[in-house]
């Protein structure tokens, strides 16, 4: 299942996703003794221009997230990736963003891929919230969502990216 369709579905997810991500962040702060392989984590990485394809990955237990991109213009930018698993182990989240809000690089392509889970919700943004600025989502026609990836749509993507958010459902063993 990809992103929910219709306005009511989008509004429901818009309220649910920040709450789920806050719960994951609170869980990581509240459980300092959690094993490193399952503790939510945030890592910084450089997004580098020059037209070459680069990737950055993080894993958390059986789940993983890989961000692959190519960008032009400017200089390196500091970005962050956060991965987390819900307390009931039912959801895996991956967020990739530029903390300063807007990226000044021109992205020629991007793809975020999750492993070990299927995407329930995903959104890409041309500007991430920073200071008084709000998230500005890409138009639906600019990117596509499959069971495991969020990627640019060739010929429709307008080269602006500052944030990706993914919530994926983890497989559950039935008793």
UniProtKB/TrEMBL annotation:
GO terms for cellular component: extracellular space. GO terms for biological process: positive regulation of angiogenesis; positive regulation of endothelial cell proliferation. Keywords: Signal. Pfam families: UPF0556. InterPro entries: MYDGF (IPR018887). Residues 1-30 form the signal peptide. It comes from the Eukaryota. The keyword Manganese does not apply. The keyword Signal applies. PANTHER family: MYELOID-DERIVED GROWTH FACTOR, MYELOID-DERIVED GROWTH FACTOR MYDGF. This is MYDGF factor. It comes from Dasyornis broadbenti (rufous bristle-bird).
């Amino acid at each position: 299942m990809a992103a929910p369709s219709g306005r009511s579905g989008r509004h429901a997810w818009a309220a649910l996703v920040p709450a789920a991500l806050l719960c994951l962040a609170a869980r990581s702060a509240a459980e300092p003794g959690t094993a490193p392989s399952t503790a939510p984590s945030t890592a910084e990485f450089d997004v580098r221009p020059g037209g070459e394809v680069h990737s950055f990955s993080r894993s958390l237990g059986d789940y993983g997230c890989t961000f692959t991109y190519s960008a032009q213009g400017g200089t390196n930018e500091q970005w962050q990736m956060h991965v987390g698993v819900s307390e009931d182990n039912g959801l895996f989240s991956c967020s990739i963003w530029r903390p300063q809000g807007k990226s000044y690089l021109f992205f020629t392509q991007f793809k975020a891929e999750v492993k070990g889970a299927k995407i329930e919700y995903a959104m890409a943004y041309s500007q991430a919230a920073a200071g008084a600025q709000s998230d500005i989502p890409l138009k639906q026609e600019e990117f596509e969502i499959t069971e495991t990836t969020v990627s640019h749509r060739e010929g429709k993507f307008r080269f602006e990216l500052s944030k990706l958010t993914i919530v994926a459902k983890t497989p559950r063993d039935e008793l």
